[in-house]
Amino acid sequence: MSENYYWSDDLSNEFYIKAAQCGFITTSMYKDEKFFLLPEIQFDYAILDFDNIKISKKVKKLIKEENFNFTINQKFNEVLEKIQNYHEKSWLSNDYIKILQSIKKNNHSYENFELISVELDDKYTGDLISGEIGYKINNIYTSLSGFTSKNKKYNNYGKLQLTLLNYFLKKSGYNFWNLGHPQLQYKIDLGSRIYTREQFLERWNCNKLITDF
After folding, report:
1. pLDDT class for 2, splitting at 50, 70, 90?
2. Distance (Å, rounded) from C-alpha 17 to C-alpha 112?
3. How far apart are CA 100 and CA 102, in angstroms?
4. How many CB atoms lie within 10 A of CB 28?
5. Contacts of 139 (CB under 8 A, 6+ apart)
6. If residue 182 lies in a helix (H) or strand (E), which one and from where to where?
7. Mean pLDDT, the chain, as a whole number?
8. What digits encode the pLDDT tens for the residues 133-165?
9. How do beta strands 176-178 and 44-48 pair?
10. For residue 8, what are the contacts with CB-CB under 8 A and spacing of at least 6?
């Protein structure tokens, strides 16, 4: 319980999924030009219970204007590309994306794991302006990474996408939303509560099944 980051040269879909099922959020790194996965069991987590969401007046206005289309699993590869371009030199490398694409291709073959892409398009141009990648384990959704357009025309559309995703998860019967690291202020502004590792694991293990290695 005193460590948080681990590394692995097992790049299989099965290892990635097993780590996720155990509560790890896996990123990646290169060491001496070799690619490694970095499963992390965090010291604390941002957890959002759907009824606790805080919606700003600006987002409420955008919802009323309805100038968008919100979809799930329609533009998986485009969302990945947008995230990669948005976060320069991030852990979402080409090698990491290959693992996600391989898992996505076989999404329905895995028990208790499903990769999910979230998309927010401009209703009139069809342009993808905000989105994220995450995964479902039983009735819990975990965010991996996301992006939003830097065009001033789409100010607050990132917050809109998060709000609409919250509605979707609640309506679809999810139990809670794991947003990962709580250090980013937008997660707290959204209504998340900070859980210690012990608190998180207690709740995590009550809401999902962990099979033995």
Report:
1. confident
2. 9
3. 5
4. 20
5. 173, 174, 175, 207, 208
6. none
7. 94
8. 999 999 999 999 999 999 999 999 999 999 999
9. antiparallel
10. 15, 19, 36, 37, 38, 39
Q: Which domains does the chain have, with CATH numbers?
A: 43-206 (3.40.630.70)
CA atoms within 13 A on the CB side of 191: 15
Taking the model in full, what pTM does it have?
A: 0.93
Q: Which residues contact 111 (CB under 8 A, 6 or more apart)?
A: none
Tens digit of each residue's pLDDT (9 = 90 or more) over 176-191: 999 999 999 999 999 9
> In this structure, are residues 131 and 146 in contact, taking their beta carbons and an 8 Å threshold?
yes
Sign, CA torsion 114/150/128/120: positive
- For 2, the token pair is 């005193």
What is d(CA 160, CA 56) in angstroms, rounded to the nearest whole number? 9
In this predicted structure, the answer to whether residue 50 has a pLDDT above a threshold of 50 is yes
Residue 210 has pLDDT above 80, yes or no: no
What pairs with residue 122 in β-bridges?
Answer: 68
DSSP reduced 3-state for 147: strand
DSSP string, 91-138: S--HHHHHHHHHHHHTGGGSTT-EEEEEEEEETTT--EEEEEEEEEET
User: Angle 57-65/157-171 helices, nearest 10 degrees?
Assistant: 80
* Two structure tokens written together for 65: 């204007």
CA distance linking residue 35 with residue 28, whole number of Å: 7
pLDDT of res. 199: 96
